[in-house]
């Protein structure tokens, strides 16, 4: 069962003397793994601290998807290592994707690390912490494909929102991506297991449920022989009263008519979809081994918008992929301008060792990648400015996230904005508002990426 940090009861034992700090990097899926490890340690009686300078052991749950993520992970490890010399820190535990991907190199390249726990060994975290607290080496990289999915966890999100992982691993094998080798084959959790966790989260006060996986739209194919995301959403809707259910990481080639119909008819399934396209030129998509070309992408978007004209679509694209010429890049820019995505993010291609694309001979130089990133984001900025201007005067329901004393305004998100990655709505209110409540807001102004307004009705 999930639980909030402050509600987690510690068992008195010698382990209570060991203070454990956490650094969680990467995506929400990684954050859920952090929460599972936290629950293991709390149940074992360890003392959890939010201040790394107080910790006896620090766990760094890492990402290693692209080069920038690896650099961030290594920088965090080196920063925490400083505490060994200057504070009370006795040990460093590295978990997550970096640990899994570089299991053979980490102890050699980063001697500051005391314990390594691969993605298949989450349940070994207690032993890792005990060993690290004694200054002993610990190594566990069990078969990631045999890891029990789900599990009790301590939530680290605000009390009104949570992520729920519905599957693990990936079978898409895009040529640029190391995730299948890191996370293993695609494995869905049973519907009843997910629904049970959703109900538990509702009991803790969660009002926004964000469903995540490496490929959410593939859900159920391995268990039930067919794409079952729509059926899962219906079951969650029937079994809870959570008002906002959000889908992240859906692939265009798996947007079934049943899922489109669920968007159209289910009032609690937010009219929002995260639909990574990565490119639009057919030659580049084929080189990426993306399943389905431009026609599939355009068809998915068209069906979604026909069913729900107001649907918010977030997407991502890679620029500077090996072999991307000026014309292919221009084609992508024209598509972004024409399609008018609600939210769009771009990534300069990262040449990842061990992936098929890393061996392609026609690599693009780094400066060209950065230049193309700037150009395509400028293209999207023009779309955002126009979309935001059109929002002025509209009345939107906003999930309140807090109060900003500097801005003298509350802030939150609409149904069209996912946590952590999308825009904020700043607004004034005549009454005090609690975090996690919903309130109607009249949009009065747009500044850069964010919107501003005034509360226009009672909170609920």
Short précis:
The chain is of the alpha/beta class.
Describe this structure in words.
The protein contains 14 helices and 21 strands. It is of the alpha/beta class and 460 residues long. It folds into 3 domains: 144 residues, Rossmann fold (3-Layer(aba) Sandwich); 234 residues, tm_1862 like domain (pyruvate-formate lyase- activating enzyme); 64 residues, OB fold (Dihydrolipoamide Acetyltransferase, E2P), CATH 2.40.50.140. The protein has a 6-stranded parallel sheet, with helices on both faces. It is globular, with a radius of gyration of 23 Å. About 2% of the residues have low confidence.
Given the helix and strand composition, which structural class is it?
Answer: alpha/beta
Number of helices: 14
CATH class of the largest domain: Alpha Beta
**CATH level-4 homologous superfamily of the largest domain:** tm_1862 like domain
- Estimate the helix proportion, in percent: 25-40%
Radius of gyration: 23 Å
Query: How many structural domains?
Result: 3
Broad shape: globular
Please give the order of strands in the largest beta sheet. 3-2-4-5-6-7
- Mean pLDDT value: 95
